[in-house]
Amino acid sequence: MSNLAMKLDTLSYANRLIDAGCERKLAEVHALAQQDTLIEISQKYLSNVATKEDLEKYATKEDLAAFKEDIIARINSLENKTDGLESKIDSVEHKLESKIDSVKHKLESKIDAVEQRLESKIDALGLKLTIRLGGIMIAGIIALEAIAKLHV
């Protein structure tokens, strides 16, 4: 995450040891050893510590709360739109049902009218056939009567 390095002012540290009564050579060696220890601790334990810059890369609770509010607002907006679409679909469905019923009634009326015309024509043809058959029968009877008179 971060590259934190703890630094030690070795000169200042060594001078403080000298002022406290340590020999210069011992103070310098001690300051360098202390610096090495701090570097080792930095590398071993502070390598996973986040810096302020690292933390600025990630979302905060406020960011997440704002994001949540935005998502909820968008969901509500979509719900409103779907409610409107459902209403429109219901309206179209009602109109289609009305048109289908209207067409159905018109077709039924036309079928009834065609059926009545066919029945009238069939009745008329039946009457014509009855009259023709009656005429043929009368002609046949007359012909038989004529043939019977000829044979008598």
Q: Please report the distance between the alpha carbons of the first and last residues.
A: 140 Å
Task: Label the structural class.
Answer: mainly alpha
Give the helix level as a range of percent. Answer: over 70%
Q: Which sheet architecture does the biggest sheet show? A: none
The secondary-structure element order is HHHH
Structural features, described:
The protein is an all-alpha fold. It folds into 2 domains: 1-58; 60-126. The chain is built from 4 helices and no strands. It has helices at 10-19, 24-45, 52-56, 61-151. Helix 1 (10-19) packs across helix 2. The longest helix is centred in the C-terminal third of the chain and has 91 residues, at 61-151. The model has no long low-confidence stretch (mean pLDDT 89).
Q: What is shown here, in short?
A:
This protein is an all-alpha fold and 152 residues long.
Helix-strand blueprint:
Layout lengths: L9 H10 L4 H22 L6 H5 L4 H91 L1
Which properties best describe this structure?
single chain; 152 residues; 2 domains; mainly alpha; 4 helices
